[in-house]
Recover the amino acids of this structure.
C-alpha cells in the first residue's frame, strides 16, 4: 500500500517551507544597512568651546598715565613752536659762542650753524612728540614691553635734562624742559603702581 499524501508539499515536489522569522524583525529595504544601537542611550554632546575671560578694565592710574603722556606729546609740539619764536635769541647765542671761539668767524658760518641747529631742533621736537604719543597708545593697551621702553626713554630724558644745566638756555626752554620731566615722572609713577602692574600682566598674558 502506498504512503503517498497529497497534502504533503514534499510529496508534491515543491520547496520546503521557510523557517519562521526570529522575533518581529522585518526585512530591511534593499541597499539599507541596519543602524547600530546607541551605547547606553548616550546622545551626542552639543558643541562647546573655551570662552576666554573678558579683558581687564584699564585702571584709573593707567588712564592718568595715558593722559600725561599725551600731554607730553603736546608739550613737545609747543617746544617746537617756541623754537621758531626764539630765533633771534638763538641766533644771538650762537653768534656769541662762535665769536668767543673764533673772533674772525664769518656771518655765513654763523647763519649755517643757526640753520643746522634749527633743523636739529625741529627733528628732535617731532621725534619727541611722536615717541610720547606712541608710548601713550602702547601703554594704554597694556603692552609690558612699552612700559619698559617708556622707562628707558624717561631715564635718558632725565640725564639729558641734568646735563643741560651745564649749558646756557633761554628761560622758556628751561621751563618747558622742567615741565616735560615732571610729566614723565608722574606718568612713570602711575604706570608702576600695583593696579597698573596687574593690568599689564592681564593684557600681556597668553590667550588660549
Amino acid at each position: 500500500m502506498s504512503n503517498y499524501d497529497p497534502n504533503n508539499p514534499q510529496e508534491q515536489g515543491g520547496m520546503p517551507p521557510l523557517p519562521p522569522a526570529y522575533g518581529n524583525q522585518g526585512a530591511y529595504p534593499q541597499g539599507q544597512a541596519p543602524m547600530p544601537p546607541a551605547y547606553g542611550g548616550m546622545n551626542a554632546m552639543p558643541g562647546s568651546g573655551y570662552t576666554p575671560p573678558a579683558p581687564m578694565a584699564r585702571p584709573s592710574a593707567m588712564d592718568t598715565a595715558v593722559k600725561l603722556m599725551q600731554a607730553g606729546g603736546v608739550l613737545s609740539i609747543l617746544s617746537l613752536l617756541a623754537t621758531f619764536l626764539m630765533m633771534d635769541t638763538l641766533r644771538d647765542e650762537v653768534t656769541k659762542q662762535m665769536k668767543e671761539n673764533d673772533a674772525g668767524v664769518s656771518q655765513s658760518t654763523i647763519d649755517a650753524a643757526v640753520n643746522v641747529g634749527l633743523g636739529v631742533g625741529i627733528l628732535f621736537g617731532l621725534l619727541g612728540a611722536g615717541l610720547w604719543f606712541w608710548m601713550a597708545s602702547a601703554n594704554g593697551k597694556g603692552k609690558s614691553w612699552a612700559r619698559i621702553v617708556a622707562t628707558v626713554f624717561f631715564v635718558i630724558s632725565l640725564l639729558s635734562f641734568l646735563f643741560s644745566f651745564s649749558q646756557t638756555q633761554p628761560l622758556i626752554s628751561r621751563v618747558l624742559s622742567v615741565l616735560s620731566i615732571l610729566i614723565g615722572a608722574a606718568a612713570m609713577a602711575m604706570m608702576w603702581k600695583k593696579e597698573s602692574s596687574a593690568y599689564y600682566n592681564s593684557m600681556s598674558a597668553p590667550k588660549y
